[in-house]
Amino acid sequence: MNTQRKTVVVVGHGMVGHRFVEALRARDEAGQWQVIVLSEEKLPAYDRVGLSYYVGNWKPEDLALPGNMYDGDPLVELRLGQRGEAIDLDAKTVTSTSGDVIAYDALVMATGSYPFVPPVPGHDLPECFVYRTIDDLDGIRAAAEAAGPGAHGVVIGGGLLGLEAANALRLLGMTPHVIEYNDRLMPAQVDAGGGAILEKLVSDIGLNVHTGVGTAKIVSIEEDGPDNVTLHLSDESEITASLVVFSAGVRPQDALAKASGLEIGARGGILTDTALRTSDPNVYAIGECAAIEGVCYGLVAPGYTTAEIVADRLLGGAGEFPGADMSTKLKLMGVDVASFGDAHATTEGALEVVLHDAAKGTYAKLVVSDDAQTLLGGILVGDASQYAALRPLVGRPLPADAAALISPAGAELGADALPDDAQICSCNNVSKGAICGAIAEGACDIPGIKSCTNAGTSCGGCVPMIKKLLEQSGVAMSKALCEHFEQSRAELFQVVQVTGIRTFSELITKHGKGTGCDICKPTVASILASTSSDHILDGEQAALQDTNDHFLANMQKNGTYSVVPRMPGGEVTAEQLIVIGEVAKEFDLYVKVTGGQRIDLFGATVEQLPLIWQRLVDAGMESGHAYGKSLRTVKSCVGSTWCRYGQQDSVGMAVLLEKRYRGLRSPHKLKLAVSGCARECAEARGKDVGVIATEHGWNLYVGGNGGLTPKHAVLLAGELDDETLIRYIDRYLMFYIRTADRLQRTAPWQEALEGGMDYLKAVVCEDSLGIAEDLEAAMAKHVEGYKDEWAAVLEDENKLSRFVSFVNAPDETDPTISFDDSGERKVPVLLGLPGMPVGVASDTAAAGK
């Protein structure tokens, strides 16, 4: 036992405070220090950088930093919900808000920062919030839900956190606005050119941007309605909103230190030297609250560095703060933004090389020395794929012409272009040499590298470069589906196809290990469905499905379900429309025409689903598979039968394709479209399979995807007759189903194929692999065996018994489900259960658990 043990008190338990405790305990093998941590928040340290990921799942535990409770470590005592209230530097004690007086040998201030709220008249109204903690987001969520979908929310501040806050409002169903006093968004990170592209990209996805204006005052509105405050802007315009979020920057949390007599920097923050020592030699400051020689650093990477230095100092080391890499890379609402080095070209004689492509929505700038030989910094907006390779080169000779490095057809920077001392992970200060050393010692995958070097464990921006280093070292990257199957999805597909195995339990017994997880179970369920016409709820299959497939309907926010009957090619009869209207009226459902030329019925409870299906099936309709990783829709224009420009019968072809591929299970959802001429009214080139009519037949396009990274479909073959067109689509879809990874859409699958489109054309159109006949036979088997999944449930009493809210009380409905009909639209009221994310209560009830 160490009788000379000393005590270090840590005031603050954010990311940096936690890193300090981890670093000290990892190095203090002799147990010299007892650690007492005071945490103002009631939650232990969590990933504040990833705070926006909390929106949607509302699970604080998903943000928790590993080991943040220090379970099993007798030398660390964590006191949650206790703030440092007073410090007596002479007595060397800290008094907490609970009244405890704690003696220390060393004191580490890790109090972080607080949101700056400008003194705008009205800033203290109850509709005003800040965006800093999980509690802040819970308050914003409550206000957004009270306001209802579509209500306006305003964020004051267009920096990093401001855009994240605006995205959170968007995810909460609000109409978001951002007010930025500067002439562009993210002024600290991007220049005017990058700001213009960034503003366009975020505006295109629903953000209302107001730059070059300030907020004069915020005034309450007495009238009833969701929007109950008005913001008066400096240009005399106004915005009416339901809530306001201040994200105008942060200030170092130095009040406690200042009250104790510690010296404060000229611009705030606890003044320290490069060893992080304050004006009292027994007190250190780390992270955002530290003004290192007068400068505060607001990023997590330099904060982690300060934590490591103080841990080293307490154990007799001589670490000094080396300066900070202020590079940033993030994805805002699907938009890549990166800034590194001297991004604004402040170095004397610096030159700028710029590629501004407004059509593609990308902006790239490299800042180089006056002789164009040394990289000084850069900005990337819209496409930051080169960030991981470029950032480590700052201050080093350029390996190629600067323009070529940012040109789409230019030089490709490989991992071999970087010297061993190049910093790959700036968050944790990990060099290329350290990563290569770990690989040489046996780390053979990303988790292994993370475990032994900490690289990639924070923001994740360096992971692509780590992968390149692994590939360069000759390490074969694991394609295992999950911890229970060493095989990839494509390899498991082959196993099922060759062995004839028809159950998950037999497959995992013979070719896997353990009992399975939420990754492999749905994946195997999809493979089994793709290789057979068995119903997905038959026998053991039912237990493998996720919620949507389990109930053959899409689960919504309040635990109800939506029902989407199939309308091949968008066609529907008058009689069917009448039935849909009657069903919607009888079951009080919200009706929405979808973008896929169908009708969606929202708000059905689980026990109502079979009753609704029966009415629709009796009217000649069937499941539209809106819930499955399968064919969704085949969109079409009216084509030559009605349109004077139409060159082929696009509706007839769309109906044929939709009836052929309905129910086809695949690695991800599939969308098709048929346009009757080159005017492209069905938007076929945005679909996985797009067919466009020509004077002489059909052009076939493949690999079009929407989502965060939209891709246009590319031409596979042209001027095809009907028979050849269908044969090629059969081959393409079956080849995709057999070889794609789990949840991999067609666009990234095509891009990952060795040989690219030339290879794919050879396989599909020329039968280069000799498997065309087999692919066509597999599709024919699917077409022959198809049966409507709704109708199959209605014919089976055992399957019907699943459709109840509570298996132990089948006549009871879920009491947590309710709606708000007071507005123009019926909307779900999100109740949930205490301590559970919205939807989980109803999902659990529906599963009978």
Give me some keywords for this one:
single chain, 849 residues, alpha/beta, five-stranded parallel β-sheet, 26 helices, 39 strands, globular, disordered C terminus
Concise description?
By secondary structure, this protein is of the alpha/beta class. The longest helix has 18 residues, at 722-739.
Could you characterize the architecture of this molecule?
- This protein has 26 helices and 39 strands.
- Helix 1 packs parallel to helix 7, helix 10 (432-440) crosses helix 11 (446-453) and helix 20 (722-739) packs across helix 23 (772-785).
- The protein is an alpha/beta fold.
- Helix 4 (160-171) links the parallel strand 10 (152-156) and strand 11.
- Strands 3-2-1-7-19 form a five-stranded parallel sheet, with helices on one face.
- The model is unreliable at 831-849 (pLDDT under 50).
Rg from alpha-carbon coordinates: 30 Å
Main beta sheet, described? 5 strands, parallel
> How large is the share of residues in beta strands?
15-25%
Query: In percent, how helical is the residue content?
Result: 25-40%
Structural class by SSE content: alpha/beta
Oligomer: single chain
State the helix count. 26
Task: Work out the number of β strands.
Answer: 39
pLDDT < 50 runs, ≥5 residues: 831-849
Strand order of the largest sheet: 3-2-1-7-19
- End-to-end separation: 49 Å
Globally, the shape reads: globular
Mean pLDDT: 88
Write the layout of secondary structure elements.
Layout: E1 6-11, H1 15-27, E2 33-39, H2 54-57, E3 76-80, E4 84-88, E5 93-96, E6 101-103, E7 106-109, E8 113-115, E9 128-130, H3 134-147, E10 152-156, H4 160-171, E11 175-180, H5 192-204, E12 208-211, E13 215-220, E14 229-233, E15 238-241, E16 243-246, E17 250-252, H6 255-260, E18 270-272, E19 283-285, E20 290-292, E21 295-296, H7 300-314, E22 328-332, E23 335-341, E24 351-357, E25 362-368, E26 375-381, H8 387-390, H9 402-406, E27 423-425, E28 430-431, H10 432-440, H11 446-453, H12 463-472, H13 489-499, H14 504-511, H15 520-530, H16 547-551, E29 554-555, E30 561-563, H17 574-586, E31 590-593, E32 599-604, H18 609-618, E33 631-636, H19 650-661, E34 670-675, E35 689-694, E36 697-702, E37 714-720, H20 722-739, H21 746-752, H22 756-766, H23 772-785, H24 789-794, H25 797-800, E38 818-820, E39 827-829, H26 840-846
Parallel strand pairs: 1-2, 1-7, 2-3, 7-19, 9-16, 10-11, 10-16, 11-12, 18-20, 33-34, 34-35
Antiparallel strand pairs: 4-5, 5-6, 8-17, 13-14, 14-15, 20-21, 22-23, 23-26, 24-25, 25-26, 27-28, 29-30, 30-32, 31-32, 35-36, 36-37, 38-39
Helix pairs in contact: 1-7, 10-11, 13-15, 20-23
